[in-house]
Amino acid sequence: MTFREAILIVMFASIVLIAPDAQVSFEHNPNSTASRSFKFNKLPAPVKDDAGAKAKLALVDGEPDPNGAELTALTDGMLPTDEDEPAANFFFNAGSSGGRFRMDLGQAIDIAQVNTYSWHPDTRGPQLYKLYGSDGVDPKFNAAPRRGVDPVTCGWQFIATVSTLKDGEEGGQYAVSVNNPKGNLGKYRYLLFDCYVTEMNDDWGNTFYSEVDVVAQ
Length: 217
Ligand SMILES: [Ca+2]
What we know:
Blueprint: H1 3-13, E1 23-29, E2 56-61, E3 99-120, E4 128-134, E5 157-163, E6 172-179, E7 186-195, E8 209-216
Antiparallel strand pairs: 1-6, 2-3, 3-6, 3-7, 3-8, 4-5, 4-7
The structure holds calcium ion.
C-alpha cells in the first residue's frame, strides 16, 4: 500500500464523522451548465467582502502546483472565467496527496458558514477535505500541524469532513457550505483545511479551489 492509498483509506473510514453541530451541504453544476457566474440553486455564489477576504493564508504542509495560483487566490474574490484555468485556482501539486493550509482571520469571530468553491471539467472539480478551527488560545496550540499530527491534539477543534464525491460525473463546478442550522460553527481565529485528492487513478486528483468564503455570524 502506498502512502497515498493509506491516506485515502483513513479519509473514507472517517467520512461520516461530522462535528455534532456542523452540517455540510454541497451543490454541483455539471459541465453543461457551469459558468463563470458560479450561480447555484440553493447555495450562495462566492462573495468578495466576506469575513475571510482579508485573512492571511499560509501553507502548512504539501506542495502547491507550480501551474496554479498562490493561496491568496482563495480570498481575492476573483473567480475563474473558464472551466480549466489553473492560474485562477489554488491546487496542490500533480501526483501529490494534497496538503494543508491555514487561514488567519486576525481575531476570533463567530463563524456562521465556511463556503468553498471549485471548478474543473474532470476529477479536479470535486472537493475532499477536513476542516478544523481554533481560537489559538490553548497553550498547546500548534499553528502549523503538518500531516501526521492530528490537529485535535494541538489546540484545534474538528469541524467537519467535506466530501462531494459521488459516482458518475465528476467534472464541473462545486459549492460547499459548512454551517450549523442551530447557530454558528464556533468562535475561531484560525481555520485549517486538510485537503485530499479526489481519486488516485492518475496524477490529477487535486482539487482546483477557486474561492473560500467565511461568513461571520
Ligand atoms: Ca479566487
